[in-house]
Amino acid sequence: MGGSADPPEGTPEGGPGGGEDEYRSVVFDESFVRAARLQEFSAQERITDHAPAVRSLPPLRKGLSRQALILVLLMALAFGTAIYMGVRHPYQAPDGSGPPAEPLRMTVIPLSPRGEVPGAADTDLLYARSPAAQFRIGAEGVPLPAARRTAHFSDSQVTGALSIAKDYIVRSALYPEVLTGDQTRPVRVLLDPEQLDQFDRSFSHPAPDGRHAPTGWLVRFDPSQAELADRRIRVQGTLQAAESDAGTLEVTADHTFVYALRPARGDKADASLFTVRRELQFRFDREDLRLHQAQLVVSYVQAGPLSCAEDSVNRLHPLLSGQTAKEGGPAGTDPYATGGATALCGSLAPGSQPKV
């Protein structure tokens, strides 16, 4: 039997030196021991706290965790993308907003007939024998043209401007409650808020000053004189959109409206035609497009048959079948006076009336 230090089988092959070499590769250095997740309690700690023989150590943290690093990278990528899109977006206005809304400049010119206004009981006959024979009916006469993008506005933005302009034209010249009633809200809600004071003052205190004529904003007849004999109003005209600067779109509208009218409460009276030519210029910034509103900056209106002696600022007083224009005309205008527009009156060409 061997000694207490030797195994019964004797010393392993290779001798003591060989055993030491066999475990040399698993010797732990000091840094490995310090990094270990388990640490043995001392004998005193185990007696005092009745703790287990070992305790777990918190993991060493060197810099950011993998999840935090990924989050930081994603945020940086999103921020960079937002900056890139803001710089590269082809429709972003350099200053971010358009100029302040201008007050509407308006001109209303009554057209006086040279003789008696022709009329007929059949409104279809009147239209068929007039220059409006081929006009479309109602809103169909205000078609939208093909929209093309500009340098700073997309196709959809140009289409939006044209649609708002059409909406204004239809409401202000085709809505029966506007034409022969006192309704103004359908038109008012489409205006830029900066023009509302001028609009409201035009109806509360109308004046022939080129700024405050209700008939410059919309078409409306004196309901005590005339009513619609046919709600199928004939319309023809054009809409055009163009970019005036990087933050503004302009739409120019030129339309002719032909109404069949008869005396108020005159169901059996002959009807006659009344023509209104409106040239309107609208302006839109990006806020107007977003809120579906418009800035109406120019309104040029010719309407007849009217008498030059009648006031056409607040309401239109049409001459109806069998009537002739009153003698006289607008009072003389002092060209040296300020604050007022020169009064104008035109002559209605005979060819613009139906041949009956």
Report on the structure:
With 356 residues, the chain is of the alpha+beta class. The protein contains 11 helices and 9 strands. The strands form 2 sheets. Strands 4-5-6-7-8-3-9 form a 7-stranded mixed β-sheet. The protein has a two-stranded antiparallel sheet with strand order 1-2. Strand 6 and strand 7 form a beta hairpin. The longest helix is centred in the N-terminal third of the chain and has 23 residues.
Descriptors for this entry?
about 350 residues; alpha+beta; seven-stranded mixed beta sheet; two-stranded antiparallel sheet; about 20% strand; elongated
What would a concise description of this structure say?
The chain is of the alpha+beta class. Helices cover 27% and strands 22% of the residues.
Distance between the termini: 147 Å
Number of strands: 9
Strand content: 15-25%
Largest sheet: 7 strands, mixed
Quaternary state of this entry equals single chain
Please give the radius of gyration in angstroms: 43 Å
- Overall pLDDT score: 82
Principal-axis shape equals: elongated
Side by side, the strands of the main sheet go 4-5-6-7-8-3-9
Task: Write the H/E string, N to C.
Answer: HHEHEHEHEHHHHHEEEHEE
